[in-house]
Amino acid sequence: MTYVLAADPTLADFGKDPLWITIIKAVMLFAFIMVGILLGVWFERKLISRMQHRYGPNRAGKFGILQSVADGLKMGLKEDLTPRTVDKALYLMAPIIMVVPAFLAFSVMPFGPMVNLFGVQTPLQLLDLPVAVLFVLAMGAVSVYGVVLAGWSSRSPYALLGGLRSAAQVVSYEIAMGLSFVAIFLFAGTLSTSEIVAAQQQTWFAVLLIPSFLIYVVTMFGEAARIPFDLPESEGELVGGFQTEYSSSLKFALIMMGEYVHTFTASGIAVTLFLGGWRAPFPISLWEGANVGWLPVLWFIIKFILVFCFIVWVRASLPRIRYDQLMSLGWKVLIPVNLAWILLVAAVRNVIFVRNGTFDGDIYLSAGMGVIIVIGALAIWMRFDTVNQRRKEAKKAEVEAEFEELSKEPAAGGFPVPPLDLPHYHGAQHKEIPSGTN
């Protein structure tokens, strides 16, 4: 591609590293995720507490920064209780199935360009594939097996219901999430994460493909089961969800870690596919050395933290929605709008791209037209939304029934109007009523 810089890695640069370099990069990635989980839990608690005018953790370590370490040690040292009726093999495997795919999905995230690591030129990315984005989606789909098995193996109705809720939710939002990437594939011409980052040298896809980005932001919360879409573990309805029968021990810690890694993976996908990846934002990108060497790791981490802050902000601001609203949003809004947007992008791409693959000047006009069309589609959906129609009809029927009840003539013995066929009640309430009187 004409817009790929010399420092940008391509698929041809992967698979050439010595084994010891691959091991070092894998250890660095694992350390980044584990340290990120410890700092992320602490940062989320501190940020939410400040938004609610509280202090948050402030006892363990300076500013409470060791609180996550203390919580991890506490859960690891607690007594590990296992109910008698569980399927022990699946009960023990479920937390592992939740964690491992989340780590694997993070392995295709590019952190920077080609760098010199201990004398070896290597990309700052563990691996890349021609179908790397599909690999991420597949790992997200596999992890839901851990949730379903955790609920099913517990032999508890509450845990089973939480697992089934999670399966239905992931199916709904995985489809919408996958469709939100199609427009990126059409513009980048590849499914490789490193080449998608290279395709955003001129314009980030968050700006170029605004509807796809907004749809992904919504599906990101549904995929990571974060508020307002944390229905699989809604405490007030399911007594804790699929992890009800897991005691606060190491298995419970693995489940919580798996959910946090999924949040990190969703943030990394947003940065990689929509926010330019490790590329410096404007106007820093005007500096020639901004995207060379180890410095791009800083831009990736800054974008990553900002996306994570947005997720925490939403959690502190919005309530949990109802399950019918969750499914209606996924199937009746996100998927139809996504399909319409993909058709528009496929049509516009043939107009705005010339034969040599460079951008035309009408790209922003076309993107604005796409936004207007999507807004119009949403307006049409709101007009013909069957859920709201049923709600309005039920409210209308309720009002009509109440009016009809009030308009009826009160029967004998009704309250507060006395029976009209017994006038002697007004002046002689204690008079004996003659036999045969109606």
Automatic annotation (TrEMBL):
Residue ranges for the region (Disordered) are: 410-438
State where the protein is found: Cell membrane; Membrane
Keywords in alphabetical order, please.
Cell membrane, Membrane, NAD, Oxidoreductase, Quinone, Translocase, Transmembrane, Transmembrane helix, Ubiquinone
Q: Which InterPro entries match?
A: NADH_UbQ_OxRdtase_su1/FPO, NADH_UbQ_OxRdtase_su1_CS
> Topology in the membrane?
Multi-pass membrane protein
Record field: compositional bias (Basic and acidic residues): 429-438
One Pfam family of this chain: NADHdh
> Among its keywords, does the record have Iron-sulfur?
no
List the transmembrane segments: 20-43, 89-109, 129-150, 171-191, 203-222, 260-280, 292-314, 326-348, 363-382
- Subunit and interaction comment: NDH-1 is composed of 14 different subunits. Subunits NuoA, H, J, K, L, M, N constitute the membrane sector of the complex.
Which family does this protein fall into?
Belongs to the complex I subunit 1 family.
State what this protein does. NDH-1 shuttles electrons from NADH, via FMN and iron-sulfur (Fe-S) centers, to quinones in the respiratory chain. The immediate electron acceptor for the enzyme in this species is believed to be ubiquinone. Couples the redox reaction to proton translocation (for every two electrons transferred, four hydrogen ions are translocated across the cytoplasmic membrane), and thus conserves the redox energy in a proton gradient. This subunit may bind ubiquinone.
Q: What is this protein called?
A: NADH-quinone oxidoreductase subunit H
